[in-house]
Sequence to fold (374 residues):
Amino acid sequence: MEFSPSVFFLSFASILLLAGGLLFKSLLKFFASDRPQGLPLPPGTMGWPYMGETFQLYSQDPNVFFASKRKRYGSIFKTHVLGCPCVMISSPEAAKFVLVTKSHLFKPTFPASKERMLGKEAIFFHQGAYHMKLRKLVLRAFLPEAIKNIVPDIQNIAKDSLQCWEGRLINTFQEMKSYTFNVALLSIFGKDEVLYREDLKRCYYILEKGYNSMPINLPGTLFNKSMKARKELARILAKILSTRRQMKLDHNDLLGSFMGDKEGLTDDQIADNIIGVIFAARDTTASVLTWILKYLGENPSVLQAVTEEQEAIMRSEQRGDEEKVLTWADTKKMPITSRVIQETLRVASILSFTFREAVEDVEYEGENSSFQKS
Fold:
């Protein structure tokens, strides 16, 4: 029995876009100061001045770097990558300590290069009232009232993707990234996205290549090319904002949610958070979809159950040879599909690592080490 993933992808794609940025693996990075402190830092090496061990990390499979460090120093060690002194951990106990037990002592953060590319006003870099306001605006754009009208459009994106894959040997993760990027643009810009899709895609693809680069803004460097793409991306977003203001129409998408904020966000704040949402959603959602396909391929009985569920929906209310257009109500008739997604989110490693910054010096007794405030 053949499995058509078009229906499967679209039903929860928008929800996954929101949830994707919140998922992580137990390997975490924490910024730490390299100045002398009373509390001891974990064992490890800091590498060359400024460059640290960035070259060792990215000149090979990063997993090799992590494995060699873990073998030598244990599950928690210090290093210096992307211009930042940091502590890396990989044990469940340490992850729970940072993310749950003492979560109030750490805040989300990113290396300086990635922060400059995403924009300092992005939600990741803030706490308090501003963070809460942005969170509400993002959630508003992903409520059923906002996404139920774009289900047929997501279906069309899935169908277009399937047609592009026909007869080809594909890299699943890369194709899922392309698919989720198109769905993300639809969720952010609504049906206007088709007018700007190619320009936005071209700029963002250049931008993301520099996310893990050293923040050296010299001609020819990845960072320099990415920052140029970032500026062009901001100009495109400014043009979209200007056009919408001139038309004076209400839009039930993420950009409309940002523009409709009563307290008012500046254009820079809107641009930073639009880019931030794309960044948070794209790789994580693509990772989820890739894991789902892997698990379904390894479990034929589950694949058959999901396929039968989807085919039953497609047959319902179908008129002749005309293909059924999916609706929001149809997504509520997918209990097996929903359970597959939830189980994948539970067991899969969606991200290789994530970042936290200590807001004050913190002692971790489990390893007789500390995380130090920047």
User: Anything to note?
Assistant: The domain at 5-371 is CATH 1.10.630.10 (Cytochrome p450). Confidence is low (pLDDT under 50) at residues 1-36.
